[in-house]
Amino acid sequence: MKPKASFYVKIKLPPATSAETREALSEIITRVASRFSFQGLEDWAITLGAHEKVLGAEREFHDLRGKGTLSEDMRVYFAKKADGVIFAKLLSSAIGDLKISAPRALGKTDWMKEWRKHYRTQVIRQGRAGLAIVPAWKKPPASPKASVKIWPGQAFGTGTHATTRLCLEAYLREAPSLGNKFNLLDFGAGTGVLALGAMALAAQSGQKISALAVESDPEALAQAGKNARLNRRKLGLSLKLHRGEKYEFVFANVLAPVLLKFRKPLKDACQPGGFLVLSGILSAEADRFAEEFHQKGLELLSIEREGDWASLSWRRR
Ligand SMILES: C[S@@+](CC[C@H](N)C(=O)[O-])C[C@H]1O[C@@H](n2cnc3c(N)ncnc32)[C@H](O)[C@@H]1O
After folding, report:
1. Nearest Cα to 146, choosing from 127, 168, 128, 131?
2. ω before 144 within 30° of 0 (cis)?
3. pLDDT by residue (tens digit) across 38-55?
4. For residue 61, which atom of ligand 1 is closest to its CA?
């Protein structure tokens, strides 16, 4: 794949800009830039390895704050130079205090190629059961026996992130109690790692799964389709939730506001007796989130934590 073109607009902040102003500003910038070919906002002076620079969507979830300091400038990245020009004009007419540069081209380093060197097989274990998430270009390990190959592209879901691992650990814990044949929903599928990982585990345990990947980003959904072919699995693909359909196991690894927005449809999608695993919740907010998400017919089984992240497992009654 050819490296993507990138142009960045540099925004110089007034000296002693407070952290609150900065946060508000980055929210406004992201909102405005998202109307164009926005690729990302760099707000931290961080020394990152090439592999971390291309985590793409995954970056949003990684807490970069521990790794760097606030930079004097912000950089806003666009795929098209013309978008950078319009964005710079819009922003400078709205906020006069900012010094905004004309868009500059970023060197065309093939970050994907660089990053591939660093992506290693991830193993998720729960008791004696385990799943290996293997980069598409590597050989699966001899143990654990179940493995899934992933070509991430720009989609989230390499198995390196805690929110993904927490989901698969919950699956390893709960799915053995389900019958021999069941339906599974992967809401916010990204690379499809959860559905495809579950299918690999089911193939080992003799369970038969019919799985649907729901992903609102068409590029990520296409990536999930490619990964399904790579693993020779039949995976349903959809940009939207199919209302009225029921699943014995539901994964939803999306940010907390999206989980709350889909609170009712996610519960409805879960078959009575089935499991609903929510991830993408900040650990510090997990208890409050559980209260907000709770609804009649759902029993909270556990809150699991890893680093800054938490997942909640529910059972539908
Ligand atoms: C954190 S990633 C999870 C990827 C993968 N399931 C994993 O666990 O690694 C969340 C994904 O949800 C998708 N998403 C966000 N809002 C969504 C929505 N309303 N409907 C479907 N997908 C959504 C995003 O595009 C992103 O790919």
Report:
1. 131
2. yes
3. 877 776 544 444 344 434
4. 1
Residue 68 has pLDDT above 50, yes or no: no
Per-residue model confidence (pLDDT) at position 2: 47
pLDDT band at 78 (very low <50, low <70, confident <90, very high): confident
286 phi/psi in degrees, rounded to 5 = -60, -45
User: Hey, what domains does the chain have and what are their CATH numbers?
Assistant: 7-113 (3.30.70.330), 155-316 (3.40.50.150)
**ipTM greater than 0.90:** yes
Instruction: Indicate whether residue 274 lines ligand 1 (CB < 6 A).
Output: no
Spatial neighbors of 233 by CB under 8 A, at least 6 apart, are 196, 199, 211
Q: Which of 248, 243, 251, 57 is nearest to 161 (CA)?
A: 57
**Best of 133, 215, 264 to mutate for ligand 1, by most ligand atoms within 8 A of CB?**
215
C-alpha 212/C-alpha 149 separation (Å) is 18
Q: How far is the CA of 174 from the centre of ligand 1 (A)?
A: 22
